[in-house]
Specification:
By secondary structure, this protein is an alpha/beta fold. Among the domains are: 147 residues, NAD(P)-binding Rossmann-like Domain (Rossmann fold, 3-Layer(aba) Sandwich), CATH 3.40.50.720; 71 residues, Orthogonal Bundle (Rna Polymerase Sigma Factor, Chain: A). It contains 17 helices and 11 strands. The protein has a 7-stranded parallel beta sheet with strand order 4-3-2-1-5-6-7, with helices on both faces. The chain has a 4-stranded mixed beta sheet with strand order 9-8-10-11, with helices on one face. Helix 5 runs parallel beside helix 6. The longest helix is centred in the C-terminal third of the chain and has 23 residues. The chain is globular and about 60 Å long. It binds nicotinamide-adenine-dinucleotide and magnesium ion.
């Protein structure tokens, strides 16, 4: 091998970012953390810069950048510190960058992920909101610029692993009948409907199987995470809503499945540890050690399955409806959900208000066809305003 591959990690201080650095650190001959980015937490970014010596570090605002740059300069570091959203787009598109891990949370991750696709990079996509907001735009950018798209979301990574390599002529042509998207069911899987109204952010943040950032953890509790993943699967695998079935599987051992027309169902199994999909996407089509332990089936002993309950968890229904409606409906759903999650975490609305707020925002907003990124960003902003007004009216 020649030089190590240069990897830009968008959101290096987050859960996915830290796991990516863990895998990279196991393969120093193969990968170099070339650019690292964080929004506001410069302390962990400083530590990462000391350890991985990236060429670039990017932070959200100027003050934070100045502080970080001073600290690094005092230590004679050669890392160049940049700031702001344009800098994110710069460090994904540099000619020497081979792959980009898109692991910023929420709509903020859209522009840099799109920039990576437009630069024709190998894009490791964790930020599912990108596909929910702008599936068509993003997939077109991937195709038109010869980018390679590898899903990091554990379910989609699992599907990618068991899907035939060439689905270019459609799923039917490849002999695929269904995608079975597994879901843990979250911390409230067995909670009665009336109890759900009273659950607290602390309870919702306590996910049974996965350690993740706060936004996706709340999404997992409402099942919106699965809803966003249905939309994500639609774009990644060109699957119609009817071809995607959600299966509650509380053990999170099967990460998803693909059913073929001959009745075969192929699944990918493993311990719930994001380093497996990260290592798979980094090395694809090869495989490398990830640090994840061997699966102990005797300890797990059983695998359970149940149908999702969209009465108690309406977010899943809302996401399917938004996908069927098409146009900007998924982007509106996503924007309203981001506001709802923030408001719930800030104790401004209750847990069961989350789907109410999203449904209200969708019915108060006109669904259109956004032709470009600027229009999409405008739709996102407008939906956020509607959602925020709902929160304020509720609090008043
Ligand atoms: P996290 O909250 O732990 O980390 C988010 C990262 O994004 C941080 O590095 C933060 O600095 C950065 N960030 C936040 N807001 C930003 C902004 N406005 N501008 C620039 N950077 C910003 O989140 P996470 O759990 O690592 O999730 C990241 C993404 O990956 C999400 O889209 C999530 O849905 C997806 N994902 C996560 C997991 C998981 O296991 N954590 C699994 C599947 C998919
Ligand atoms: Mg997932």
């Amino acid at each position: 091998m020649t030089r190590p591959q240069n990897i830009t990690i968008l959101g290096s201080t987050g859960t996915i970012g830290v796991n990516t650095l863990d895998v990279i650190a196991r393969h120093p001959q193969r990968y170099r953390a070339y650019a690292l980015t964080a929004h506001s937490r410069t302390a962990p970014l400083l530590e990462q810069c000391r350890r991985f010596k990236p060429a670039y570090a990017v932070v959200g605002d100027e003050d934070a950048a100045e502080t970080l740059a001073k600290q690094l300069k005092n230590e004679h570091s050669e890392t160049q510190v940049l700031c702001g959203a344009e800098a994110l787009e710069k460090v994904v598109a540099l000619p020497e960058v081979d792959a980009v891990m898109a692991a910023i949370v929420g709509a903020a991750g859209l522009r840099p992920a799109l920039a990576a696709a437009r630069a024709g990079k190998r894009v490791l996509l964790a930020n599912k909101e990108t596909l929910v907001m702008s599936g068509k735009l993003f997939m077109d950018a991937v195709r038109q610029n010869g980018a390679t798209l590898l899903p990091i979301d554990s379910e989609h990574n699992a599907i990618f692993q068991v899907m035939p390599r060439d689905i270019g002529r459609g799923l039917e042509h490849a002999g695929v009948s269904r995608i079975l998207l597994t879901a843990s069911g979250g911390p409230f899987r067995t909670c009665a409907a009336d109890e759900l109204a009273r659950v607290t952010p602390a309870q919702a943040l306590n996910h049974p199987n996965w350690v993740m950032g706060p936004k996706i953890t709340i999404d997992s509790a409402t099942l919106m995470n699965k809803g966003l993943e249905v939309i994500e699967a639609h774009w990644l695998f060109d699957a119609a809503p009817e071809q995607i079935e959600v299966v509650i599987h509380p053990q999170s051992v099967i990460h998803s499945m693909v059913e073929y027309i001959d009745g075969s169902v192929l699944a990918q199994l493993g311990n719930p540890d994001m380093r497996t999909p990260i290592a798979y996407a980094l090395a694809w089509p090869e495989r490398i050690p990830s640090g994840v332990g061997s699966l102990d089936l005797f300890r797990i002993a059983r695998l359970d399955f149940e149908a999702p309950d969209t009465q108690r968890f309406p977010c899943l229904r809302l996401a399917f409806e938004a996908l069927r409606r098409g146009g900007t409906a998924p982007a509106i759903l996503n924007a309203a959900n981001e506001i709802a999650v923030q408001a719930f975490l800030g104790n401004r609305i209750g847990f069961t208000d989350i789907p109410r707020l999203i449904e209200a925002t969708l019915s108060a907003t006109t669904v259109t066809e956004a032709a470009n990124l600027e229009e999409l960003v405008a739709v996102d902003r407008a939906a956020r305003r509607v959602a925020e007004n709902w929160v304020e009216a509720k609090a008043a």
